[in-house]
Amino acid sequence: MVLIQVLLPTTVGAEDAPPVGVAWTETRRELTEKFDGLTAYTRSPAKGVWTAPDGHAEHDDVVMVEIVTDTFEQAWWRMYAARLAARFGQKSIHVRAISIELLDEKP
Fold first, then answer.
1. What domains appear along the chain, each with residue ranges and CATH number?
2. What is the mean pLDDT of residues 71-91?
3. Cβ atoms of 51 and 27 closer than 8 Å
């Protein structure tokens, strides 16, 4: 089993991008259709901080979306992360995959 975590911004970064509510609705629909569900931690956004190439600190509020699935299709996720970056007006979207073992499954 694989736990896929996606960090999505709580605001849209490009003026020509759709409103964040529209972006979230579309993303939730797509992921739920493909993976039969997801968990989004939306109650209190996480505070992201990183150093930009020019040396100044960048800040972003993000929400963690988690999906549990049998396999990690790296090529699909690369394509989808690029689509999400465009949708949310970001340079990139952070996606990570972690191998997990579910305790409620029989071996």
1. 2-99 (3.30.70.120)
2. 95
3. no
